[in-house]
Every structure is written in structure tokens, then in C-alpha cells.
Amino acid sequence: MARGYGAPGRRRARTVRGPAARTPSDAARLRRTGRDGGGRGNARPGLTVRSGSWVRAGFGLGLGATLAWLAVHTVLQIGELLTLFLAAVFIAIGLEPLVALLTRRRIRRGWAVLIVLVVFALCLAGFVALIAQPVTDEIGALTKAIPSWLTQLHDRHTFLGHLEDRYHLISKVRSALSSGGSSVLGGLLGAGKMVLSLITSAVIVMVVTIYLMVALPVIKQFCLRFVAAGRRRRVEAVTDEILTRTGRFMLANLATSGIAGLATFAWCAAVGVPYPAALGFFVALMDLIPVVGSTIAGVAVSLVALSVSLPIAGATAGFYIAFRLAEDYLIMPRAMKYAVDVHPVVTIVGVLAGGALLGIIGALVAVPAAVAIGILLDEYVFSRTDAS
Predict the structure, then answer these.
(1) Which residues contact 89 (CB under 8 A, 6 or more apart)?
(2) Is residue 209 within 8 Å of residue 92, measured between CB atoms?
(3) Rg (Cα) of the chain, in Å, rounded?
(4) What pLDDT is attached to residue 11?
(5) Three-class SS state of 2
(6) Which helix (H) or strand (E) element contains residue 343?
(7) Which runs of consecutive H residues, i.e. helices, occur in the chain?
(8) Which of 33, 229, 302, 367 has its CA 20 to 30 A from that of 129?
(9) What pLDDT digit, counting tens, does each position of 290-304 carry?
(10) How far apart are CA 327 and CA 252, in angstroms?
């Protein structure tokens, strides 16, 4: 006989207690009522987790938006300082080919930087020496002419006397000085602040440029340490190519400015405009400023040419218009194509866009930025798309 307490052939069924004993209908009923087998009440953990995730997401979005606003506000507040730093970086990279040329001749980097800075200081000193005498002469002539102009203002038979009778210039100047003394003082204080700001900016750019020129290899190696070791050599090669082409751009810009200065000197010496050497140096310096530099220089030289005669001034203005067109569409694009291998259209559009965004500094760094973007695209984007 089979063992058991029931009928023969039948085994005693085990009594199963707990959740395993629930039928599908019982599980559905418990889900509807929100109760489990242990009688722990109507707790629904899913809703608690979901509401907590929404709180965390909202807090994260709010914190991220606040940090983004603070970052943008900080950048806007120190925008001028960042612009000066960008100018110092551009000058340091532009002078790097000269420093590298001296270091390849077994000159220590510190001495090479000092030699380059001394050469540029001598150039600026030569420019100051060239313009010192003309400025002194013009100020002396103006001082001597003021008493004569005052005498003519009281003489009705002279041109200045007719102007005084018609417009009462002396009384208007006296009333302006008496009633607007505070505005004149404010204007003088504003001019003084502007001059002080320019001097401070120049000192900041000079100091940062010297530091970057001396420590450029160390800074480059430090930045490359953030790149993985397997990719470091490739990134270093791309970085060196960008720095080399940026230096070539600076040298090409200096070459075109030198051409502008020599052309000005030759024209002024040929037509008899005074101080041709000083004007040539002035035009070379102003031509370093893209877009507006050569225009300002041409206007200044044309005004100086008025001291000779009106036809000479008109001819000088025509000369600068022709030279500006030749420089913008022939000299500069070809020099940039040879130095940095950038299409002339990219050069012109980049300079205009950079000038519109960041002013003079943006116009200066526009072409090197275009060069860097082109190198990065060739190295990391176009190489993959061409291979696919």
C-alpha cells in the first residue's frame, strides 16, 4: 500500500503559505487595492520615486541655467581683459618665428626674446624720433599764429573778421567757457581717463606678451598633457602647424605694411609733401590694423599734403585710394595665400567678420582662426569623410 493518510495512490499535498499561494486573480485584486500580502497598507513606492526624479531634474535644470547665466555675465564683465589677453597671445605667436630662428642659432630663449623686443623698441624709438621734430615745429607754428588770428578776428577787413561779424565767434566762445566750464572739465577728465586706460592696456599687453614669448614651449607642453598619450604626437604636430602658419601670417602682415610705408615715402618725396620718412613710418604702423588702418593713414597724409597745395592733396588722396584697392585685392590676398595657404576670399571675409565681432583684435586674429579651423577640418573631419 502507498504511504499516506488519504486514499491509496495519493500523496498528502503540502500547505504553501505566503505570496506563492496567491492565484493570478488574487494578484490582480491586490494590485487594484494597493495592498500586499503582509498587510502593509496602501503605499505605492513607484509614485514616490517618480516625483523625486522630477524634483531632481527641475533642480538640475535650474542650477545649470543659473551657472550658465553667471558664466556669460562673467565673460561680459571681463571681456576687455580677455580681448587684451587675446591680443597678447596673437603677438607672442606672431613673433615666435623670429624667436625660433634665433634659438636655432644656439641662442638661449630668454636672450632671443630680449633681442626681438630690443629690435622692436628701437623701431618705435626711431618712429618717435622721426615725428618729434615735425610735431614740435607744428606746435610752435600754431603758437605763433594764435596772436595773428586774434588780431584778424578784430579786423573787419579780413576773412576772420567777417566771420566774427556774422557769427560772433568770440562771444560764443566766452559764453561757452563761462557756462560750460563743468562740461569742459568733464571732457578733460574723460580724455585723461581714456589716455590712462590706453596706457594701462598697452602695459598689460606688453607684460603678458613677454611672459608668453618666454614660456611658450612650457605652456604648450603643459596643455598637451591633457591629451591622451596615444594621440599626443598627432595633436602636437597639428598645434605646431597652426603656430607656424600664424607666425607666417604675422610676418606677411609686416611685409605688406612695409610695402605701404615705402610707397608712402616714395610718393611724398616725389610730390614734395613734407616729412616723407615720418609719414611713411606712420602709414606702416597704421597699416598693421586691418580694414581701417590704411584708410586712416591715407586721410592723415592727404591732410598733410594740403600744406603744399590743394591739387597735391587731391592727387595724394587718389594715390591712397588706388593703393588701398591694390592692397586689399592684390597684395594682401596673395601674401596670405603664400604665407598661410588660405584662399583670398576666406581672407577678405574673415577679416570683415572678425572686425565686426571683436573690432581691431578680431580683424587681426580672423585669418589665423580661419587657418586653424581649416587645419583641424583637414586633420579630423575631412580625413574621415574621404576614407569612408
Answers:
(1) 208, 212
(2) yes
(3) 38
(4) 47
(5) coil
(6) none
(7) 24-33, 45-77, 79-103, 109-153, 159-167, 169-179, 181-224, 229-271, 276-287, 293-305, 310-326, 332-340, 344-376, 382-387
(8) 302
(9) 767 788 888 888 888
(10) 12
Distance CA 171, CA 174 (A): 5
Angle, to 10 degrees, between the axis of helix 169-179 and the axis of helix 181-224?
A: 70
Whether the CB-CB separation of 254 and 288 falls below 8 Å is answered with yes
Task: Please report, to the nearest 10 degrees, the dihedral formed by the alpha carbons of residues 369, 371, 376, 377 taken in order.
Answer: 110
Q: What is the DSSP string of 12-68?
A: PPPP--SGGG--HHHHHHHHHHT--TT---S--HHHHHHHHHHHHHHHHHHHHHHHH
Q: At what angle do helices 229-271 and 181-224 cross, to 10 degrees?
A: 140
CB atoms within 10 A of CB 334: 14
Pick from 267, 279, 322: nearest CA to 303: 279
Write the pLDDT tens digit of every residue in 135-145: 787 777 767 77
